[in-house]
Amino acid sequence: MAAPTHAKVIIIGSGPAGYTAAIYAARAMLEPILIQGIQPGGQLTITTDVENYPGFAEAIQGPWLMQQMEAQASHVGTRIVTDHVNAVDLGRRPFRLICESGDVYLADSLVLATGAQARWLGIPSEETFKGFGVSACATCDGFFYRGKSVVVVGGGNSAVEEALFLTNFATSVTVIHRRDGFRAERILQDRLFKHPKIKVIWDSAVEEIRGGNDPTRVTHVRIRNLKTGGLSDIATDGVFIAIGHAPSTELVAGQIAIKPSGYIKVAPHSTATSVPGVFAAGDVADEIYRQAVTAAGMGCMAALEAEKFLAQHETERAAAE
Amino acid sequence: MSVGKVSDANFESEVLKATGPVVVDFWAEWCGPCRMIAPALDEIAGAMGDKVKIVKLNVDENPQTASKYGVMSIPTLMIFKDGQMASRQVGAAPKQKLQQWITTAV
């Protein structure tokens, strides 16, 4: 096995938080290494129009934005590695990382920017039909629903964006939401309510996804009205789950303080975690805003805090010698 | 062996009538997770050599085959043995998991 690679700063994750941390760390001459993970570019690579990232007057494409961030991080001196971190040891510094390729890295400081993954409903029938009519990625799978009817479950930005996107293919889109109002941005809500192909069913939760097995396909969803308790069936060819995201913390579980909500705990107005030298930025640590621009902001903070941490550490070591 | 391409036109000869197992990657240009697993499949194809044939089928250009096998999500990977679908994997997964799935199924 090759000798471990040592770096002052290693960034795990390649969304807006990771790349922004890399840009700042590289410009601080810390020669950062960024390990991209299984989804290079992060969640924005499975979106389409991005209309709320400042600096772009016209709508831009999520995958394009991430290519730009990657190129910028690379230009200023980040070493970008296409690999996935399978294990970390935060027990002592330098922190030790083992990647899927078998490569081992040692890091004096670490930025966790592992982001979040789509949540599923967690009902057995969802698993049965995953890939046969149940999806969590409208941009991936909308194509297969040309001329068909679909259901979108959820009420946040992703649900409303996916519903609007699916109107490009489907003849009808039904949004099913647990509450009687959306959390999504008002501008998106307005577009949704005005759209002739979209209708909304409020106060309802999906109990079961039903279909046939020859071939395996979805035929309808059974929903329960949470106010009246009444059950009803909605005929549909596809079900898109957009009920939010869960922070990806498996890598550090048990080694770092995690909030009851599942997000990594950071100090107020800081990205410092419970382990000195480990910083967390973006959706893995932000349970409130979860925007590309706030993730980028936290990435910047993490890099500046890592730089300060390394400088302090250096001073202490010099004083001790 | 590198990852080859198949189409609606040659699916039968290249996949169904192939000698030995064939992994088919149903994908499209606009699918982010499909692009994610492409390098892993290239590496697996390289490492496994003659033991397995791995091919890609673009669902945009070849809707018949995708529809015949009920593909409603991409990436979807299928392993064909003797003209029959032997195993199916939906969604992107890390290289290790894909490797394991292929090794177990072939």
Write the layout of secondary structure elements.
The complex is a heterodimer of chains A (321) and B (106).
Chain A: E1 5-12, H1 16-27, E2 33-35, E3 49-50, E4 60-61, H2 62-75, E5 79-81, E6 85-89, E7 95-99, E8 104-112, E9 116-118, H3 124-129, E10 134-135, H4 138-141, E11 149-153, H5 157-166, E12 172-176, H6 186-194, E13 198-201, E14 204-213, E15 216-225, E16 231-235, E17 238-241, E18 245-247, E19 278-280, H7 292-320
Parallel strand pairs in A: 1-2, 1-8, 2-5, 8-19, 10-17, 11-12, 11-17, 12-13
Antiparallel strand pairs in A: 3-4, 6-7, 7-8, 9-18, 14-15, 15-16
Chain B: E1 4-6, H1 11-16, E2 22-27, H2 32-48, E3 53-58, H3 63-68, E4 76-81, E5 84-90, H4 95-105
Parallel strand pairs in B: 1-3, 2-3
Antiparallel strand pairs in B: 2-4, 4-5
Structure notes:
- The complex is a heterodimer of chains A (321) and B (106).
- Chain A is an alpha/beta fold and 321 residues long.
- Chain A has helices spanning 16-27, 62-75, 124-129, 138-141, 157-166, 186-194, 292-320; strands at 5-12, 33-35, 49-50, 60-61, 79-81, 85-89, 95-99, 104-112, 116-118, 134-135, 149-153, 172-176, 198-201, 204-213, 216-225, 231-235, 238-241, 245-247, 278-280.
- In chain A, the strands form 5 sheets. In chain A, strands 1, 2, 5, 6, 7, 8 and 19 form a 7-stranded mixed β-sheet that branches. Chain A has a 5-stranded parallel β-sheet with strand order 10-17-11-12-13.
- Chain A starts with a strand and ends with a helix.
- Chain B has a 5-stranded mixed β-sheet with strand order 1-3-2-4-5.
- The A-B interface holds A 38-41, 45-46, 63, 82, 84, 86, 100, 130-133, 135, 137, 139-141, 143-144, 215-217, 238 and B 28, 30-34, 36, 39, 59-60, 66, 70-74, 76, 88, 90-96.
